[in-house]
Design goal:
908 residues, alpha/beta, seven-stranded parallel beta sheet, 27 helices, 33% helix
């Protein structure tokens, strides 16, 4: 494996990072930068760069310098780390100078050079390279160097040394002398002279376009590096040294969000202030919808909550203040954004708002209330966030709306990869006043999408948390109690003594949870916006019922607590007010618990959690070996002695033919090495095929020793092909019951504000059925259900009306635990229990039932049902049915509908 491939696998490089490193390797493998001339390096780079073209390094640089032009969000810092390690590993270079254009990026690079940081630039290489020693503007005077008799002596330090500096700290300006260039007693000279003394100094320029001013180039060149590496998303037009380009057009939809231009075409007659008001309100409505979708995705996939934010580009500081006052008021969206907006501009400092930008560093955290950022052309490089979803440009110019520096802030993916959900994989850019112009510009641009809000209005939505009979915050206690009780079917709860036993385990589970709650959780005093949002999500809100009396399972009464009987028959008094665990979860009183159990067993289907794995068995069947090589040449080699001076042949001698002492052993060992499926247990089989082959070779044992020595490689290939032809491979699935009983929890639904309908009512706009929630169910595990199609809704009507159907569940995402491929869960539409069977049902449009993914999921579901049938606690058989949507007609029975299912063929 090449050095580049090893780095790729160790660092988990993305494809563009890997490609960039390969081009750098193609160039660097032919150059020794310590000795190569700049002209020779340019020539080699021109021949080996991406799409070979003329590479010309800036005339102000006396050293070769190559540029990586890569769009924001691809990971230039990580590529920088890969290049540094590559040069260390392949050329032994140890000194790397990282140049930052300002304090923000300077601080960012310092943080990312520390192991353990989430964006550590050498992540994955910790075991390979140890911890580099980092020197920066704060500690460089401690560098272990001194001058002895006018010679520089560097004390032994780490293999790789990294020097991180802000460009402003290495300038020399007239009479002004910076510490970097000033004599220092600790060093015995200036630090600049120390760096100049290294014969392997490599300059890495982050946001390299910022260094193309004459003073910057002079300061860089003074350090006498052997190589420069430039990293930028916006190269200068004078950059003729780009060896690799990866633009927004390459990354959008793969490693970056897709920008969507949102606009209105009916703006004639509106004033500038009216359009500005319209853009703000549309942008915030888009933001609120995005918050709901992101919240739902995080809940369903069990990932940490992501807080979407909005970026508003303002004309000037006066305009920014006006917008801030508007948003930060009770009249704007009912005061929902009071205290949630921050203004970033240069009014308090000079050229760049470095100090203000520092306030944004925690904006991704949920404990930070900021959701809206106002800026005045000041958010450039260095502000790297993954949670920007909406940009509202109020600063007029069309060119600014599409400026990569602004759009680039919102291109990063919040979950690290494309999710396949449009609202999570896109960046909204609200551009009403320039919408027509922009659409004309980008109509043939595959990067951008467009959406006309006059044709597709943004609906008012709300987020609802739908809970089963047992509230979501009690689910974990019920789950623990069922497991400890050994209950495998909800129908076992018809037995009173079983319910008593379950209540006892429920109390123990509550005590365990209460006493193990971490103090940090109890005393943090911090509530994220999602704690508040989560409470709002449930329309019932948090439990506030005052439990005046708690009954224990032995009949004891506690007015402000509960009494629990321990396994040794001692009792434990728990103060509910102090020990109820996080989020004020109070235990059910006994009568309330029994009531919940009664509700649950009516609608809950007993479903086991099953893990399925696949086991492959390979067997090599005995076979009659054939010899495909017709003739073996064992003639002796010839040695010629030649007189080159007189140009004549002196003598021809026969050379002794090389032999192998044990041809059987040599061929057997070679086969064992070349066929990975073989191990020592196959020795008898290997020796048999080798002996058969040797028997097919004519001649004496001595002849065979010579033939095997000369033809070993082709003989082994001949045998390998025949062995693989005899191979028989069988795959069988193995299932394991991971949990006897699944307690399905709540699900989150983003719905229209007026989107509640009775389940029998058809939605006029069926393509938007996802925005509705349907109620009125009696057999359903959930009192309300959401659907992806009207076909699904119609099936729910059949399930409610069919007397043979006892109960059904529309399982929420990622709770069933059925995997159809590695790390990919399948979530069927319905689990249904009838009087004599249980079904897993998928509803699909008729033109989608034969697609590869649908069939792959179906086959996994059939296997799951086979396993579930063997362990079903109610003794019922599980069957899988894939039903075309056009076969579902209200009024038919479930039995009739499942009879119209698409047959699924599962290979044995």
């Amino acid at each position: 494996m090449s050095s580049v491939d090893k780095i790729k696998w160790a660092m988990s490089l993305r494809d563009p990072q890997y490609e960039a490193l390969k081009y750098f390797d193609a160039i660097s493998s032919k150059i020794e930068y310590r000795t190569v001339s700049k002209a020779e390096a340019e020539k080699i780079a021109s021949e080996n760069c991406q799409d070979p073209h003329n590479i010309s390094v800036d005339k102000e640089f006396d050293f070769p310098s190559f540029c990586f032009d890569m769009t924001t969000g691809i990971g230039k810092s990580r590529l920088m780390g890969a290049c540094i390690y590559y040069l260390y590993k392949t050329k032994g270079y140890k000194h790397f100078f990282i140049l930052a254009p300002g304090n923000t990026i300077y601080d960012k690079m310092r943080r990312e050079s520390v192991p353990g940081h989430p964006k550590y630039m050498f992540k994955g290489l910790e075991a390979e390279m140890g911890r580099p020693k980092v020197y920066d503007g704060e500690n460089y005077l401690s560098y272990p160097v001194k001058y002895v008799q006018e010679e520089l002596v560097v004390e032994k330090t780490s293999d790789i040394q990294i020097f991180i500096f802000n460009i402003s700290k290495i300038f020399t300006r007239g009479d002004l002398e910076f510490k970097f260039h000033k004599f220092n007693e600790n060093l015995g000279g200036s630090f600049a002279e120390v760096l100049r003394s290294f014969d392997d100094l490599v300059i890495c320029m982050d946001e390299a376009h910022r260094y193309y001013a004459p003073a910057s180039k002079v300061a860089i060149n003074y350090l006498n590096p052997v190589l420069g590496l430039e990293f930028t998303a916006t190269p200068k037009s004078t950059n003729k040294n780009i060896i690799y380009h990866y633009g927004l057009e390459d990354g959008a939809g793969k490693f970056l969000k897709i920008p969507v231009v949102m606009g209105r075409t009916n703006t004639a007659g509106y004033s500038e202030d009216d359009i500005e008001e319209m853009k703000l309100k549309d942008g915030i409505k888009l933001h609120e919808r995005r918050k709901s979708i992101v919240y739902k995705y995080c809940i369903e996939n069990g990932v940490e909550q992501v807080k979407p934010i909005v970026l508003v580009a303002c004309k000037d500081t006066t305009h920014a203040k006006k917008i801030k006052d508007k948003i930060d008021s009770d009249s704007f969206f009912g005061g929902r954004y009071v205290g949630k907006v921050i203004e970033i501009d240069s009014s308090t400092s000079g050229a760049e708002t470095e100090e203000n930008i520092q306030k944004l560093l925690t904006i991704e955290k949920n404990t930070n209330p900021i959701e809206i950022v106002l800026h005045v052309y000041k958010l450039k490089e260095g502000w790297d966030v993954n949670n920007l979803f909406t940009i509202i440009p109020l600063n007029a110019a069309k060119s600014d709306i599409l400026a990569l520096q602004t759009i680039g802030r919102g291109l990063r993916l919040p979950f690290g990869e494309i999710t396949g959900i449009e609202e999570l994989d896109t960046l909204d850019i609200v551009a009403h006043d320039h919408y027509r112009e922009i659409i004309d510009d980008i109509k043939n641009n595959p990067v951008f999408k467009k959406k006309n809000l006059d044709e597709e209005e943004i609906p008012d939505t709300k987020t609802v948390q739908v809970e089963p009979a047992v509230e979501n915050k009690q689910i974990s206690l019920f789950d623990e109690a069922l497991k400890e009780s050994g209950i495998k079917s909800y129908q076992d709860l018809n037995n009173q003594s079983t319910v008593e036993s379950l209540f006892e385990e429920y109390q123990k589970a509550f005590v365990k949870k209460a006493t193990t709650t971490k103090k940090t959780d109890e005393n943090s005093g911090q509530m994220s916006i999602f704690d508040l949002f989560g409470n709002q999500a449930s329309e019932e809100g948090p439990r506030t019922d005052d439990i005046a009396e708690q009954q224990s399972n032995n009949g004891g009464v506690a007015t402000n607590g509960m009494t629990v009987v321990q396994p040794d028959n001692t009792t434990l008094q728990i103060d509910i007010q102090k020990s109820s665990g996080s989020k004020n979860v109070l235990p059910y009183a006994k009568q309330e618990f029994i009531k919940k159990v009664e509700e649950l067993k009516k609608v809950a289907i007993s479903v086991p959690k099953i893990g399925i794995s696949y086991s492959s068995t390979i067997e090599f069947k005995p076979f009659t070996v054939k010899r495909t090589i017709q003739d073996f040449d064992i003639a002796a080699s010839r040695i010629e002695r030649y007189d080159t001076i007189n140009d004549r042949l002196l003598q021809v001698l026969d050379a002794d033919a090389l032999i192998v002492e044990n041809p059987e052993n040599m061929l057997a060992v070679s086969l064992l090495d070349s066929i990975p499926e073989f191990d020592s247990d196959d020795a008898e089989f290997i020796l048999d095929v080798v002996d058969q082959y040797l028997a097919l070779i004519d001649g004496s044992d001595e002849d065979k020793k010579k033939i095997v020595r000369r033809y070993a490689t082709v003989i082994v290939n001949d045998l390998r092909n025949q062995i693989y032809a005899s191979k028989e491979e069988s795959t069988e699935f193995v299932f394991k019951v991971q949990k006897d009983l699944i307690v399905f929890g709540s699900f989150v639904k983003n719905m229209r504000a007026d989107g509640r309908l009775h389940f029998k009512k058809e939605v006029p706009d069926k393509k938007n059925i996802k925005h509705y929630l349907f109620e009125g169910y009696k057999k359903s595990y959930y009192p309300e259900n959401a659907f992806d199609s009207d076909d699904e809704r119609r099936l729910s009507v059949i399930l409610e009306e069919d007397d043979e159907v006892v109960r059904f569940i529309k399982p929420p995402l990622n709770q069933l635990g059925l995997f159809y491929r590695a790390a990919k869960q399948y979530n069927p539409d319905f689990l249904v229990e009838t009087k004599d069977k249980k079904y897993m049902i998928e509803v699909k449009a008729a033109n989608q039932t034969e697609t590869e993914e649908v069939q792959e999921k179906a086959k996994a579901a059939v296997k799951w049902c086979e396993c579930a049938s063997k362990v079903d606690a109610d003794g019922k058989v599980w069957e899988y049915r894939l039903i075309p949507g056009d076969k579902i007609v209200v009024g038919n029975t479930l039995k009739y509908v499942v009879g119209l299912a698409v047959p699924i063929s599962v290979e044995e």
